[in-house]
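Protocol step 6 of 9: fold each sequence in the batch and record its structure tokens directly after the sequence line. For illustration, a two-sequence batch is reproduced in full.

Sequence one:
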Amino acid sequence: MADPVFVDANVPMYAVGAAHPLKQSCVDLLEAIARGEVAALTDAEVLQEILHRYSALCQRDRAIEVIQLFTKVVPAVLPITLADVEGALDIHRRYTSLQARDSLHVAVMVNNGVERILSADQHFDAVAEVQRFDPTLWMRLKTVP
């Protein structure tokens, strides 16, 4: 199996959210991960992002539910270290299109040798250190070494 791919917060959020053009692709992707067809991991900041977003919408119970479901499918959660934060500063300086959280995700990926990210966020396309896979094209992950 190929090296693991980093799963961004928008994948589980689209999967459990309301009707959206990306919903079914994200559901299919997470099911493939659950079946072991795609090796995946995430980081603690993705979980915080999910918790923050649903809590901001006054859906605290939903936040907990989504994180619990997501970590059953993707139990490999990388921690955030000081080295990751320091790396994020450099990433954030070089890639002005990235939000702070995304700069941190890239730094975590770089520091852990992860080169591929599953995300609907096209701004990752400008980041030389990572290769983004759109959730609608996740099947290509199965053919990429």
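Sequence two, same batch, same settings:
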Amino acid sequence: MKRWLIPATVAAAAFVFGGSALGQLRADFGRFEYENNCLACHGAKGRGDGYFAEYLKLPMPDLTTVTQRNGGVFPADRMQRIIDGREELKGHGPRHMPIWGAHYNDRAREYFKGTAYDSEAYIRVRVLSLVDYLYSIQNQR
């Protein structure tokens, strides 16, 4: 896959469908990533009540209150590092959440095997989509 293909496709979609459709596509992509990778533990609404949460040692945080718990500011960079997980967060102890950056990297290697595709772009798009979705559900009680 060519490096320019994804940005060109997004630009073409923006031109054809207009800005509102692109915004909807972005929101749907983040929701899709959340539903496929996070819902089991964090719950459908992000409140920490997923069907798998009862089997975990630590309680799941309410992801709809991240901004509130951070003094009214959504910590996008920190959320990105937590989701990606490949960077050790000092003072946070052992990781209990899957390292999605490594998972996406493995998936990118499989999808783009034998090409010059940059797997980091694939990882960033998915992680940032999740961060964007988490931002969109803040204070939804």
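Proceed to step 7 once all outputs are recorded. Observation for sequence two: The chain has a mean pLDDT of 79.
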